[in-house]
């Protein structure tokens, strides 16, 4: 199984390299065929549509914008004329002198207050109750505004007594202060959405006598704009007053509409058409900004676009037919061949394509692919079986090289202990020997075992060696908990421990052997340390025994231990797994086993 996984891993690497090559190509052959086929149809069509759209946008759109700009200017001029007429009507109160004469008669004859109010109300009623430019009119004298005044309202312009009451309660003081700044000019004042036109009444010496306050009927003054701008927003500045329109409703604030940010005329900005009109009169300036959605401007051109849409819809069946033909006779056979190649790359040898191609060329390619896949599977199966048989034979041969010298020494010790006295030591040593012999015989024929089981074999071996060497041998164990369940080759540690004791402890007379395990990434590391220093001759011998092409048949059994371990790891896992022996410190030699425990090894 491990060999199969290694083979599949190699196939995966080949597939990854193939994918990288595909990415570099960017476009597969089938998409190139589609691009060529569609290009023969799309290029003329796109050119035709582009020319039509260019004509529509360059001519029709420009005419539409000019027409809308002219319409805005025309309706704005109507509003200017109504404002001028309203201003002209307000001048009558000053030029006719009726209000001055009433005041002079009141002062000279000492009439009652109600007499003056009645005369003022009568004059205002005659002049302004039928003027739609004003919804209500108030006139008051400077000497005593609260008593010496008169007011009327125009019901036909939306006026009511409530407007007059609102003026006296909420707006009078503001208007009074503003009138002091006007002199003989006309002014416009906004109070919480209520717009007033204000002018002072002066005597023959041009001294202020009273103030005429007229509430503007904004809906009437800008009636043309309101009817024209029912679908979009408008902002009108009367002097400094912002009279804004939104969806045809006067005095609804529209954020962000500032005429001074745009030039006069028409301007496109962010999907909207902005039209600005600026009118400056002697008594006021009127600055207008209209915001029209692009969809509204282009509404009349949708007929042309619908014609283009119908043309596209009529041509869609042709495109669909072309795509279906290309897919049926080119794309699908090509995809089946690519799928077959991917299956073989993933190790599914012998994969057969069952798709029935519609062309003679792809029929030949499909049959050839199936025959090649069958032959490849047949050859691979035979080669794999021969390779596995050879490797099994090599592994069994290597595992059979158990040191007979060790077995003889063990039996002598047991015999010696038995002759001296019968105690538990004999039993324990016999048990340890039994563990080692069972591991060597391997009745279950397992190549790999959990590390914790391998450590049982090592413990049995170390027990026997401690009985042999006594206090001369010290063993330190540093086994990481997360390594105990990792799979390792059976009897992989005993030859290394034996080598450490034979060439380290026994040669030195005494010593310490350290056994440790740890993991890094996909690899498990098993290390032994023992006392000793390798000279040049020993270093050369180790290099020879651990060489990749070392032939164990030419070596005496006494030197097969570490070579056995190194070759078994190489057969099972490949590079970089194996055994390495090196000088760790000045007086310590380390033997390190590298075992692959990644996903493929499981």
TrEMBL record:
Domain HAMP intervals: 328-381
Subcellular location: Membrane
Residue ranges of the TM segments: 31-57, 301-326
InterPro entries attached to this UniProt entry: Bact_2-comp_sensor_kinase (IPR050640), HAMP_dom (IPR003660), HATPase_C_sf (IPR036890), Sig_transdc_His_kin_internal (IPR010559)
Xref: SMART domains: HAMP
Entry superkingdom: Bacteria
GO molecular function list: kinase activity
Record keywords: Kinase, Membrane, Phosphoprotein, Transferase, Transmembrane, Transmembrane helix
Designated name of the protein: Histidine kinase
Annotated source species: Blautia caccae
């Amino acid at each position: 199984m491990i060999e199969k996984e290694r083979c599949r891993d190699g196939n995966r690497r080949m597939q990854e390299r193939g994918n990288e090559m595909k990415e570099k190509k960017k476009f597969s052959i089938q998409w190139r065929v589609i691009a060529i086929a569609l290009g023969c149809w799309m290029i003329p069509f796109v050119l035709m549509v582009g020319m039509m759209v260019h004509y529509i946008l360059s001519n029709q759109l420009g005419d539409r914008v000019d027409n809308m700009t002219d319409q805005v200017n025309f309706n704005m001029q109507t509003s200017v004329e109504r404002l001028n007429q309203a201003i002209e009507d307000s001048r009558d109160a000053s030029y006719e002198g009726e209000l001055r004469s009433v005041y002079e008669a009141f002062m000279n004859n000492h009439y009652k207050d109600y007499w003056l109010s009645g005369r003022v109300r009568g004059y205002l009623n005659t002049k302004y109750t039928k003027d739609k430019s004003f919804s209500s009119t108030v006139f008051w004298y400077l000497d005593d505004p609260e008593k010496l005044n008169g007011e009327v309202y125009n019901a036909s312009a939306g006026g009511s007594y409530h407007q007059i009451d609102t003026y006296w309660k909420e707006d009078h003081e503001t208007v009074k202060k503003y009138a002091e700044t006007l002199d003989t000019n006309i002014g416009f004042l906004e109070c919480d959405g209520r717009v007033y036109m204000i002018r002072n009444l002066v005597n023959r010496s041009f001294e202020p006598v009273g103030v005429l306050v007229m509430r503007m009927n904004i809906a009437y003054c800008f009636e043309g704009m309101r009817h024209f701008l029912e679908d979009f927003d408008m902002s009108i500045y009367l002097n400094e007053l912002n009279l804004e329109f939104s969806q045809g409703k006067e005095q609804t604030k529209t954020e962000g509409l500032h005429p001074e940010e745009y030039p006069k005329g028409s301007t496109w900005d962010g999907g909207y058409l902005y039209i600005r009109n600026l009118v400056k009169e002697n008594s006021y300036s009127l600055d207008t900004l209209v915001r029209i959605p692009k969809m509204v401007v282009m509404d009349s051109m949708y007929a042309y676009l619908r014609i283009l849409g119908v043309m596209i819809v009529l041509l869609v069946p042709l495109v669909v037919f072309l795509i279906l033909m290309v897919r049926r006779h080119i794309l699908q056979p090509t995809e089946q061949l690519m799928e077959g190649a991917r299956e073989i790359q993933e190790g599914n040898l012998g994969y057969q394509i069952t798709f029935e191609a519609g062309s003679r060329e792809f029929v030949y390619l499909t049959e050839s692919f199936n025959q090649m896949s069958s032959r490849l599977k047949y050859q691979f199966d035979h080669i794999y079986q021969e390779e596995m048989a050879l490797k099994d034979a090599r592994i069994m041969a290597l595992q059979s090289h158990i040191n007979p010298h060790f077995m003889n020494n063990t039996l002598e010790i047991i015999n010696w202990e038995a002759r001296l006295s019968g105690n538990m030591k004999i039993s324990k040593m016999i048990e340890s020997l039994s563990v080692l012999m069972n591991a060597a015989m391997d009745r279950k024929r397992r190549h790999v075992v959990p590390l914790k089981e391998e450590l049982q074999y090592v413990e049995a071996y170390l027990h026997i060696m401690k009985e042999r060497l006594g206090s001369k041998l010290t063993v330190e164990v540093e086994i990481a908990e997360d390594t105990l369940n990792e799979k390792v080759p059976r009897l992989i540690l005993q030859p290394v421990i034996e080598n450490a004791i034979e060439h380290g402890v026994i040669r030195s007379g005494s010593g310490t052997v350290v056994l440790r395990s740890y993991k890094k990434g996909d690899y498990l590391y098993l290390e032994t340390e023992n006392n000793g220093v390798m000279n040049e001759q020993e270093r050369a011998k180790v290099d020879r025994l651990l060489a990749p092409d070392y032939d164990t048949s030419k070596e005496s059994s006494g030197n097969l231990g570490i070579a056995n371990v190194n070759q078994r790891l190489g057969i099972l896992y490949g590079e970089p797994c194996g055994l390495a022996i090196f000088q760790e410190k000045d007086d310590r030699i380390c033997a390190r086993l590298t075992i692959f425990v990644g996903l493929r090894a499981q």
